[in-house]
Write a structure and sequence with these properties.
Length: about 725
């Protein structure tokens, strides 16, 4: 029969093939890591195309841009040049909103605010409401609002939970924040989802059209969907319930962002006619690695038990390494990688180093640099978080959407042009009184009472300059960026500066120009400014990932989802870090931390090393660390336990695995006194250890100059 003979299906197992060929009706692919879920999705798309389904009816949703790129790459090889829409939920929603903006009270040219920008608006909202934040922080308020949005609780429906201390504040400030966002014609990341979910709910005709348009929908990593995302795919799969989702409840790691495991656990209830496919064979990892993963995840109580097996070889033992200090940890890993690269055993790209929070990467970066091993830190946001990049983009944002208050506040006096705080406050007052955007208020500078003539002139000049830049709105983006750099004096200021830092800024702006010209090349015919801005605000944390380049990959465990590498190191497996200290008294959070380590472990194909250090810098001090309780859950007798030198010869710093001392290094004498250099090198490292939510960590300022492009990722197939 046709199906059985197609080369497209040859490389699949029976179970995988069953999933690929099930096109009509709901489908749930429930399977552990490395079992081919993502592979099934790509083959399924190719199979649908081969069966004559038009590309435009297919929608494949992923969680990161990188995952989408990877999928596109794999599909390109199976079925070249097909216009199947693949992308993240956020991108999909941004696209929907462009078409239906006015239905939710936005303008078509709305801006997407990143965390920084939305914080500015939140601050204005707090000021307007006259709220005093002595007992809480803007971060906490922002998180509460975000949580509400992910659960589709809109501003008018928000009710504080009893005993929830900041609830009362959120109740006041959330509506004001939304009002200001709409006035700026702007959305935050969560709004993208919420607006679309509500749009689909309140406009049956639009819902019906889109359901008809996207008849075949696939969601990879469905275990990480939150209520808003769930509502969207559900709404698009009513008349045509051809919804296929893949997921692994054991890999659900976004509970902190509102992901709801019940979405996958209850899929069978939502779609009674669902076909369920279970894939049990792992094709990625050795038996040793899979066994360790299995032993760990068994400690979670809230899970359906499932067996993982592989026909892959037994492979090397998983290694568990103890180091006296984080510095030894970093140096030894770097030396080992350098050794394997120099002896030709592996290439840099075969290695990945994972950590719980970005702050942990610095020392390893340093060690890799010393060994002259190329590496990349997967954290695309960093580039766009740089001050100079954000400044220039803010000018572009204003050209595209003159109502954008956050953009205006950002650059009204950058570079400095004599518009002081009190002038800005006066403009804000006018904007508030008349409920108009700041730029409109600024246009009235000449008539604002109490404003010094000099200030009014400075503001008028600023407005005139913006209008001048606005005349270039439809020019190619590269030209527009160049124009902004010149007209605003931004380039000149940096060029005249003696500071090394400013030279680095100039280099980054060059990088932005490069990105703009690449964008122009990809989008001939102009009219690209809005798209360019959208692209740069939706860069996800994994976007700087270039798997073509031969570099060691460093990333957080969260970013590692869905990927695979021949050799993996997971560092800093210590109490308070992994599991994170926030999960200490919360069994559910602890289980999520365990799943996070499980995700990390199951990325490894051949070699896996888990490490921890007995002393780690904490707020500028060497502090004793405690091995992660998760390490205690692993079958250590089946692992290779290593001391200070990772097993190559017996260096004097070698530490035997001694359970008691590992468990409570505080009781130890300072056997390995902290080195002075450590203190110097490490001082700032843990400054931000208190705000360890991955999203916040993404904003850490980078030391390295990063490449800008998001390379197409070579497929794992
Ligand atoms: P994760 O849960 O980690 O996202 P996954 O279930 O999506 O994993 P894939 O990434 O699709 O797994 O597959 C893991 C690896 O196994 C890939 O390298 C893939 O090419 C390979 N693989 C999957 N199925 C097969 C198969 N039938 N034959 C050969 N290789 C396969
Ligand atoms: Mg996958």
């Amino acid at each position: 029969d046709h199906a059985l003979r197609s080369p497209l299906l040859d490389s699949l197992t029976d179970a995988q093939r069953a999933a690929v060929c099930h096109i009509e009706g709901p489908l749930l692919i429930l399977a552990g890591p490395g079992s081919g879920k993502t592979r099934v999705v790509t083959h399924r798309v190719a199979w649908m195309l081969a069966s004559g389904i038009p590309a435009r009816q297919i929608l494949a949703l992923t969680f990161t841009n990188k995952a989408a790129d990877e999928m596109r790459g794999r599909l390109e090889r199976l079925a070249p040049r097909q216009a199947v829409w693949m992308g993240t939920f956020h991108r999909f929603c941004a696209r929907m909103l462009r078409s239906y903006a006015e239905l939710v009270g936005l303008r078509e040219n709305f801006s997407i605010y990143d965390t920084d920008d939305s914080r500015k608006i939140l601050q204005i909202a707090l000021d307007e409401e006259g709220i005093d934040l002595t007992h809480t922080s803007p971060d906490a308020i922002a998180q509460a609002i975000s949580w509400a949005k992910n659960n589709l609780v809109t501003a008018d429906r928000y009710e504080p939970r009893r005993g929830h201390a900041i609830g009362g504040i959120v109740e006041k400030v959330y509506p004001t924040y939304q009002k200001l966002m709409l006035r700026s014609s702007a959305v935050d990341f969560d709004d993208l989802l919420v607006h679309v979910a509500i749009l689909l709910k309140e406009n049956p005709e639009v819902r019906r059209q889109l359901d008809e348009r996207y008849r075949y929908i696939m969601v990879d990593e469905y275990q990480d969907t939150n209520l808003a995302q769930y509502t969207i795919v559900r709404a698009l799969s009513i008349d045509h319930p051809n919804l296929a989702v893949t997921g692994d409840p054991d890999q659900s790691i976004y509970g902190w962002r509102g992901a709801n495991l019940s979405n996958i656990l209850e899929f069978e209830k939502d779609y009674p006619k669902v076909k369920v496919v279970r894939l049990e064979q792992n094709y990625r990892s050795t038996k040793s690695i899979l066994h360790i993963a299995d032993q760990l995840i068994r400690h979670n109580i809230r899970r359906k038990e499932k067996d993982l097996f592989t026909d892959n070889p037994q492979g090397n033992r998983v290694r568990l390494a103890t180091f006296p200090t984080q510095r030894d940890e970093a140096e030894t890993i770097a030396e080992e990688i350098a050794h394997e690269v120099r002896t030709g055993k592996r290439r840099p790209r075969d290695f990945a180093i994972f950590y719980r929070t970005n702050a942990l990467s610095r020392q390893i970066e340093h060690a890799l640099r010393e060994q002259v091993i190329p590496y990349q830190i997967v954290n695309g946001l960093e580039f766009y978080q740089r001050k100079e990049i954000k400044d220039v983009l803010a000018y572009l944002q204003l050209v595209n959407n003159p109502r954008s208050d956050a953009a205006l506040l950002r650059i009204i006096n950058t570079p400095t042009r004599g518009i002081g705080k009190s002038t800005i406050a006066k403009i804000q007052e006018v904007a508030r009184d008349r409920a108009i955007p700041l730029l409109d208020a600024a246009r009235m500078a000449g008539t604002i009472s109490g404003l010094a003539k000099k200030s009014a002139v400075a503001v008028a000049k600023f407005v005139a300059m913006l209008d001048l830049i606005g005349t270039k709105a439809t020019a190619p983006v590269e030209e527009l960026v160049g124009y902004v750099l010149t007209e605003t004096g931004y380039r000149e200021v940096l060029e005249n500066s003696e500071a090394e830092e400013d030279h680095e800024r100039l280099a980054n702006l060059e990088e932005l120009l490069t990105a703009a010209s690449e964008f122009d090349l990809r989008n001939p015919g102009g009219a690209g400014l809005e798209q360019f801005l959208e692209d740069s605000s939706l860069v996800a944390d994994t976007d700087a990932f270039e798997s073509d380049s031969d570099k060691v990959t460093m990333m957080t465990l969260h970013a590692a989802k869905g990927l695979e590498f021949p050799a993996v190191y997971i560092v800093a497996c210590e109490e308070g870090l992994l599991p994170h200290e926030r999960s200490r008294r919360d069994e559910e959070k602890l289980e999520e931390e365990r799943r996070l380590l499980f995700v990390g472990i199951t990325r490894a194909m051949q070699d896996l090393t888990l490490t921890w250090a007995q002393y780690r810098m904490f707020r500028g001090q060497q502090a004793p660390a405690v091995a992660s309780s998760f390490l205690m859950e692993l079958p250590r007798h089946e692992m290779e336990l290593i001391g200070g030198n990772m097993g190559r010869g017996s260096a004097p710093r070698y530490l035997a695995w001694d359970e008691e001392s590992q468990l409570s290094p505080e009781d130890d004498d300072l056997e390995f006194p902290p080195r002075e250099q450590d203190a110097l090198i490490d001082a700032p490292m843990y400054d931000d250890v208190n705000q360890l939510e991955p999203e916040e960590m993404q904003t850490r300022k980078a030391k390295e100059s990063k490449t800008f492009s998001s390379g197409i990722v070579t497929a794992a197939d």
